[in-house]
Amino acid sequence: MKNGKFGALDLTMGSMFVALMAIGANITSIVPFLVIGGVPITLQTFFAVLAGLLLGSRLGAFSMFTYMILGLVGAPVFAQFKGGAAVLLAPTFGFIVSFIIVAFVAGKIVENKRHLSRYIIAAIVGTAINYIFGTHWMYAAYIFWVDAPSGFTYSLAWYWMVFPLPKDVVLAVVAGILAFRVDKSVLSKSNFRNQQNVA
């Protein structure tokens, strides 16, 4: 990125994460055994965190924004191959919005100090943002514009999030370690990271 503008390499890297998000949203279509207890094991939060850690806060957030817009205009990139403006009213749309914030915050945390501990902390913080923002959006959706299931409460909304939580905590740590190793072994020596340092 030069003079605050994204270059060809930036856009290529960002596009790669848009594609990874689409794959991560529908990974159970490729490997159906990743549905445990009826809960699909998606990799969206994992890739959103990685986008921030590897691309940086601005490009990472921009790639997640692009993913969201691509889905809203009709591309089947969301979970269960959904797409289109109707997704705006889905109770889970808040999780999609949160990916932009997740990538930005995770990227900001590691931009100045690229230590392993910072990467892991950034990944965990990003995952926490995804849960907090997405769950509150879901609760508000069921209260204000979607018919809530019988007996739905704020506590029940959080109870639903207990099932994917262990997976996402483990994946957050994995994302932090993976991003640190990729940065040290590849990106720190590449034109991509040098471009970011100059910007």
Could you characterize the architecture of this molecule?
By secondary structure, the chain is an all-alpha fold. It has a single domain, classed as Arp2/3 complex 21 kDa subunit ARPC3 (Orthogonal Bundle). It is built from nine helices and two strands; from the N terminus they run H-H-E-E-H-H-H-H-H-H-H. It has helices at residues 8-25, 27-30, 44-55, 57-72, 93-111, 116-144, 154-160, 165-185, 191-198; strands at 35-36, 39-40. It has a two-stranded antiparallel ribbon. Helix 3 packs across helix 6. It starts with 7 loop residues before the first helix and ends with a helix. The model has no long low-confidence stretch (mean pLDDT 88).
Task: List the main descriptive attributes of the protein structure presented here.
9 helices, Arp2/3 complex 21 kDa subunit ARPC3, 2 strands, single chain, mainly alpha, 2% strand, 199 residues
Question: Which band does the percent of strand residues land in?
Answer: under 5%
CATH topology: Arp2/3 complex 21 kDa subunit ARPC3
Give the number of domains.
1
| Mean pLDDT metric | 88
Return the structural class.
mainly alpha
Based on CA inertia axes, which overall geometry fits?
globular
Helix content: 55-70%
Level-1 CATH class name:
Mainly Alpha
Task: Tell me the Rg in angstroms.
Answer: 17 Å
Poorly predicted tracts of residues: none
Helix tally equals 9
User: Using DSSP, what is the number of strands?
Assistant: 2
Which sequence of strands runs across the widest sheet?
Answer: 1-2
Which architecture per CATH? Answer: Orthogonal Bundle
Q: What distance separates the N and C termini?
A: 6 Å
**Order of SSEs:** HHEEHHHHHHH
Largest sheet: 2 strands, antiparallel
